[in-house]
Design goal:
Elements (H helix, E strand, L loop, with lengths): L7 H23 L3 H6 L2 H19 L27 H17 L1 H17 L4 H10 L2 H12 L7
Amino acid sequence: MNMLSGSPGMKAVERAVEKAILDEFREIESLGGVLAAVENRYQRSQIQNAAHRYEQQIYDGTRPIVGLNRYRNGADEMPEIELARTPRAKQKLQVERLKRFKKRNAEKSKRALDKLGAVVERGENSFPALLEAVEVCSLGQIASRLQEIVGRFRPMV
């Protein structure tokens, strides 16, 4: 539920956004429609102008981005953060639950993983097979099978 819906401030924002959208539509219409605007590179120029404004705001400081143009004051004290540790008994319980889950679903998980692998290899929509697999497989089992097929993600640097 949006607690701000219907508030005077949100109404003003809605009116401003609606006006800006209608102004944009009128501008495109005055150029002769969407096709003519594309031919005149109107949308491209608007995107470039918006990107330029965004960069200017970053560099003149009106749009603060922490770590890029705003930094923590060195005099500030770092807050003390207490680490949350899971008790050993709870860790053991979870490991045992996972072992029982894998044992109980061993045959079903093999079929589900084989089906998921086949779908991924064919390049089809893997979501339905993935939904079936999560019912009987652990996250680790699913991730391992997918890594066997498509490899491990390596971000481009």
